[in-house]
Amino acid sequence: MVAAPGMPPEWADVEAKAQQVDKLNPAGIQSVADQFAQASKDSADHSVALRNATATLGGGTWSGPSADAFFDYVKKIGDAGQKVNDHLDEVSKELSTLQGSLSDIKNQIHTIQQQAKSQIDDANNQAVQQANAAEAQENAVHAGKEGAAMPSPTSAEIMAANAQKTSGIASGARDHIQTLLNNGNDQINRVMDLVKKDVEGGYDSVPPLGTAPSGAHSSGGLHGGGGSNFSGGGGGGGGGLGPSGGPPSGQPPGNVRQWIEEAIKEMQAQGIPVTEADINSIWAIIEHESGGNPHAINLWDCVPLDTMILTQRGWLKHNEVLVGDETIGYNPLSGHSEWTPITGVVHHENAPLVRLANSRWHATTTPNHRWLTLPRVHVQDTGLPTVCPECGWLPRTSVQPANGVAVHRRKMHGVVPPRQRNVHSDRPRFVTSKEVRSRDRILLSASARTPARLDITVREAAILAWIAGDGHVENRKHRPTMSIAQSKPHLVEKLKSLLVDVPHACYVDDQGGCGPRHQFRLDYDYSRDLIARAGSPKSDSVAQVLAMSTEQREAWLEALTDAEGARTLKPGYSKAQVAIYQSPGAVLEAATLAVYLSGRRPRVLHARSRRDTWQPEASVRGNTPVVSGASLGSTAAGRGNVWCVTTGLGTWTAREEDHVFLTGNSNAKAGHPSKGLMQTIDSTFNSYKLPGHGDIYNPVDNIIAGVRYTMSRYGSIANTPGLKAMSHGGGYVGY
Questions:
Q1: CA pair distance 288, 576, nearest whole angstrom
Q2: Which alpha helices (DSSP H) does 625-670 contain, by range?
Q3: Could you tell me which residues come within 8 angstroms of residue 312 by beta carbon, excluding any fewer than 6 positions away?
Q4: CATH architecture, domain 303-377+628-670
Q5: What's the pLDDT at 544?
Q6: Least C-beta-crowded within 10 Å: which of 54, 265, 373, 450?
Q7: Given its phi and psi angles, is residue 369 left (phi above 0), alpha (psi -120 to 50 degrees) or beta?
Q8: Considering only CA atoms, which of 343, 340, 332 is closest in space to residue 372?
Q9: How does DSSP classify residue 459?
Q10: Is the distance from CB of 141 to CB of 11 less than 8 angstroms?
Q11: Taking residues 658-678, what's their average pLDDT?
């Protein structure tokens, strides 16, 4: 028999290119378009209000050269406002068109991928059939069968031609997808050029009242202080394109530049070492933190809308979970997870996103989403000498004298001090996605302590798992029966012990080639009663695991591992590595949850290749529940609509794709959002504001506090983590 050839080498390129549009969010683009439309409306309202307010001064009420200059000035502002409105309307229209085009491109790419895969599968199946027939003729010739003749083409030629054919299909799909991607990129670049385009005759072309025009220069922004609701470029209430989707930082818009320059002058007057050379760096921070909107309030500490939450009703989407549902959260007093009530559900639009990832785990969140960490901490040595034992030397300072003595002894006497000791903290604390450092150890799972909500015994929990794995549920003329089949001798003995006092019959089939096969058939009345109390061992397995007590769930997981798992003890390890194999479906979902609730981090792997006659297969393994911050990379993930919950314990259980993990809940109700141009929280702003600059929403005041905090914490503006990351080719991270 000829082996199925699988996908051609070019197929990897098809999948890689198709994945580029998987997270494309047309709705998010439309949201930005709507914000530009609203900005245009608001700007028009300001112009109308200004015109109405000054109309009463006309008609002879006020006349003369000063009045003429004033009315001319008002007219220029109105004309400039109209040009800004026209530009905002044009951007809004182009963004709406863009989201429709990108949505079509996304659908076309997925259709091309699916059609190409179907064509390749059909070609492979047809080629295998033809090659098998040709191979049969070849075998007949080799066997000397009378009348047999070599086929033309041969089986090898058939498969070679098929390989060339499927490669052509994949190459065609790849090139077609690339053409669509190029088209999409061209449209995006065209719209981005429009977004960045200066407005000829905008507000910056209007000279201050009483001064002579000095040559109009364009600007997309509005003059003024904190009272304006507008900002240049992509700003304005989160209307910017975020940390990964927009243009690189360059010159700030006119109004933001004025705010930065004024803030620099105020700080220089106080002896703070900032100069105009820092303008672009400050703008880079502002651009990524607030988009240039002085009224931005960041209540985001959330996850994307496709992240699901675990409840007693199973996995729920953001629009399905209700206040009063319960989820699994971490109890720091007991060190275990448990059911905790959901006290609130929050949603936010167009939030910045980051992706934390290593080779085995990932999660997408907003930058200030919270995680539990058990960090590596330094243990302070006590009892170290504060006077040199060798020569009686005294340190000059009373601050950390033991450190001074240790340095002296090393240099003068060659005495090496004890090595610094670090331990892993057993007291969890919260850390945000943007704050994760190498010392952090993110806690993603903890063993659950849950009460029994299922009317079964611990033994029956194990029976349910055996049936879910190696068992069968039959319904013969409305008489349900359940059976378990097993041929491994040690597991047969385990089943015999498990089923003591459980009504059943045992049949032995010794006709197979793998030794005697034992079939344990449970009594009809017992089967009916167990199903009535617990539900189907297979289709209801997720609900069963969620309703089990800790002891019941441990028995269920142990039995399922016996039935469908493998235990491998690798050299150098004291515990065997366990993998449970199962086809995708309810039982695999239940196994994943049971592993998670046991205190391990489940990792689900899907088989990459299989014969056409085999079912899809996956495996779930229990990995360490802690992920080191040193192994995690952080990259910008664009912007999107987000959601989160608040819970009694401050944590909840989330799922992103096949990753199940413990995470922190929303802090929106705590009342500590970051605010303003540089997104400072109230306590930070109050600590670093200058006298006379106490309005967090005033752009100049906010810049002063943000810059002073940055310089205090990082030594200089250039050392801000986001700017350092960008200078090395990475994405922006919050400060």
A1: 47
A2: none
A3: 325, 326, 339, 453, 546, 547
A4: Beta Complex (2.170)
A5: 97
A6: 265
A7: beta
A8: 332
A9: H
A10: no
A11: 81
Q: What is the pLDDT of residues 627-636, one digit of tens each?
A: 999 999 999 8
Q: What is the pLDDT of residue 233?
A: 29
Strand partners, 519: 485, 507
Q: Which pTM was predicted?
A: 0.55
Counting DSSP H helices and E strands in the chain, the numbers are: 17, 25
* Beta carbons within 8 Å of 111's beta carbon, 6+ residues apart: none
| Tens-place pLDDT, residues 249-269 | 456 666 889 999 999 999 999
pLDDT over 90 percentage in the chain = 38
Structure-block tokens of residue 689: 């504001």
- Domain residue ranges of the chain, discontinuous segments joined by +: 11-203, 221-295+678-727, 303-377+628-670, 387-421, 458-624
Closest by Cα among 22, 178, 31, 181 to 105: 181
Q: Is the pLDDT of residue 80 over 70?
A: no
**Tokens coding 714:** 């990082």
Secondary structure (3-state) at 680: strand
- For 448-469, b/e burial (b = at least 16 CB within 10 A) is bebebebebeebbbbbbbbbbb
Query: Above 70 in pLDDT, residue 181?
Result: yes
Cβ atoms of residues 292 and 240 within 8 Å: yes
The alpha-helical segments, DSSP class H, found in 312-389 are none
Options 3.40.190.10, 3.40.50.300, 3.50.50.60, 3.10.28.10; CATH of 458-624: 3.10.28.10
Contacts 24+ apart (CB under 8 A), 684-693: 684/709, 688/712, 690/266, 690/267, 690/270, 693/266
Query: When comparing pLDDT for 218 and 490, which is higher?
Result: 490
- Give the per-residue pLDDT at 245: 31
State the Cα–Cα distance between residues 181 and 178, nearest whole angstrom: 5
Structure tokens at 55: 């109309």
Task: Give the phi and the psi of residue 355 in degrees, each rounded to 5.
Answer: -120, 115
What topology is assigned to 11-203 in CATH? Substrate Binding Domain Of Dnak; Chain:A; Domain 2 (1.20.1270)
The percent of residues above 70 in pLDDT, for the chain, comes to: 78
Element (H, E) at 607: none
Band of residue 33 on the pLDDT scale cut at 50, 70, 90:
low
**601-606 and 618-623: which strand pairing?**
antiparallel
- The whole-number pLDDT of residue 75 equals 62
Taking the C-alpha atoms of residue 279 and residue 707, their distance in angstroms, rounded to an integer, is 11
Residue with tokens 């799922």: 655
